[in-house]
Each structure stands twice: as structure tokens, then as C-alpha cells.
Amino acid sequence: SSTDQLPNRPSSVPLDPSKLFSGLVFKGFNHIDPLEFEELVRQAFETFGFSAQLTPSTGDDGVDIVLETQKPSKSIVQCKRYSQDQSVSPREIRELLGSMTFTGASHGYFVTTSRFTEQGRQFCRHQKILLIDRDVLPKLFLLAERVGLNRDQYVEEMGDPDEFLFAKLDPNMK
User: Fold this and answer.
1) pTM (2 decimals)?
2) How, if at all, do strands 65-69 and 51-54 pair?
3) Residue 141: which of 11, 22, 12 has the closest Cα?
4) Residue-wise over 59-73: b if at least 16 C-beta within 10 A, else e?
5) Beta-strand relationship, 107-112 and 73-80
6) Closest CA to 117 of 77, 85, 87
7) What are the DSSP calls for 96-163, one per residue?
8) Which pLDDT belongs to residue 69?
9) Burial letters 110-121, b for 16+ CB under 10 A, else e
10) CA–CA distance, 40 with 30 (Å, rounded to integer)
11) Residues 122-155: pLDDT tens digits?
12) Between vectors from CA 97 to CA 38 and to CA 80, what angle results, nearest 5°?
């Protein structure tokens, strides 16, 4: 796949999730640099048992983070740190689906500090794409914090990290 040939950006030393995620949710996300936002999202996904690698900041084929599990399976993440008044368009979500096909990813995650349009949400209803907007983003980070602090409690429940996250965060799965 194309992301196999891309050199990864180095990630920073992981921070203690108990100090990171609660404070982040309290302060909000719009003050964070876009590349720092990607790194924080990478760390959150790693907490759920993924091997998570940042891709280069340019020429990434619409993929910011590549997630792998022991299955083996691959998922991809697209991050957009937008202002609250800028919505993610259906075109951007379709591009993520195209990147999933191109890279052979089984699941996709679109993480944004803003919102998705209703057309974008409709498009994802029958795709393995989890939309994480400014309302779901705090839930992602707080869940990562809980899992990070109580890993033994969640190991059995987590099983497959993709299925765990879709069950916990996808409103269509409820």
C-alpha cells in the first residue's frame, strides 16, 4: 500500500493519559496546532490497543494516522482541526473512503474539532467510517483516559479495538 512507503513523522514521548485528556477536554481543542492535534489523537488511539503511526504532514494520501492491530488489520484516521463554524463536507468524507480503498484499510475514522454536515453523516451510515466531531471528541479522549488508567478492567471488553470504538462512540450502533 502507499502508506507502507511513506516515512512516518516521529511521535513525541507518550504522555500520562490521566494528565493529558481531561485537561484537554476542559480547555477545548481550537487552541492546539493541527500537527499537535494529530499527535494527541494518535496517542488516544494507541490507548485502545492500536499500533498508531503518524504519516508525513504532506503527501499523506489523505491519511494522518495509520492504525494496526494484532489481527492483523489496518484502519486509517483523518484529522481536521477546523474552527467551530467550518463543517466537514461530504467530499472530504468520500476522500477518506477512497483512501481506505487505496490503502486496504478495513475502517476509517474522521476526527474533527468542528461538525459534519447531515449529508456527510448520511453517507457514512453504510460505511465503516466513524465520525468523531466536537461533541464526540471529548468522549473519545475521556474514554481513552478511563481505559489508560484501568486497562485490566477493559482488556476483555475491548477485544477488537475497531469494534470497541464503534460500539462506544457511533450513535448508529446504539
Assistant:
1) 0.84
2) antiparallel
3) 22
4) ebbbbbbbbebeeeb
5) parallel
6) 87
7) HHHHHHHHT-SEEEEEESSEE-HHHHHHHTTSSEEEE-TTTHHHHHHHHHHHHH-HHHHHHHHSSHHH
8) 87
9) bbbbbbbeeebb
10) 13
11) 999 889 999 999 889 989 988 988 888 887 777 7
12) 25
Residue corresponding to grid cell 481506505? 100
Which whole-number Å values give the CA distances from 109 to 31, 70, 152, in the listed order?
22, 18, 25
Phi/psi-derived region of residue 149, left when phi > 0, alpha when psi is between -120 and 50, beta in every other case: alpha
Arithmetic mean of pLDDT, 57-80: 86
Query: How far apart are alpha carbons 14 and 74 in whole angstroms?
Result: 21
Omega of the bond leading into 72 within 30 degrees of 0 (cis): yes
Cα gap 50→29, rounded to integer Å: 23
Cell of 125: 451510515
Closest CA to 29 of 77, 92, 70, 84: 84
Rounded Cα–Cα distance for residues 161 and 138 (Å): 18
Tell me the CA distances in angstroms from 139 to 76, 87, 132, 142, one per residue in order. 19, 19, 9, 5
The three grid cell numbers given for residue 120, joined into one nine-digit string: 456527510
Which residues make beta-bridge pairs with 69? 73
